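We modelled the chain as a single entity of 123 amino acids. Its sequence is:
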Amino acid sequence: MEECLFCKWKQEKEKMILENEYAFARFDDFPVNKGHLLFMTKRHVKNFFETTLEEKNAIFELMDKAKEILDKKYNPSGYNIGMNCGISAGQTVMHIHVHLIPRYNGDVENPRGGIIDGAIPRR
């Protein structure tokens, strides 16, 4: 069985933006927008519902710190926070990861509904 991509990433310390005891953050290799970050647990866990309370808190602690960094570096006007849990929800790497996507005025014509309205396009 092939090793998990995100488990390999935890060894790449030079690419980590932030880390704590249970989680780490790094820029997405395929960013949706400038500053797009991913937050992952250090322990291999399939999805959000399998994480411990400590892991959940660790991810959100890093997200708060990352927002401060992104605000200073890129000055976005908003953020999307999202995760996919399961193949039918669009998860392609079976290791919990949370996206923090900076948003900028005018980056899409009509941002109403954010990422949620596009989850099931026909609706």
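As a brief sanity check on the tokenised model: The first strand starts at residue 16 and ends at 19. Residues 60 and 70 are 15 Å apart (CA to CA).
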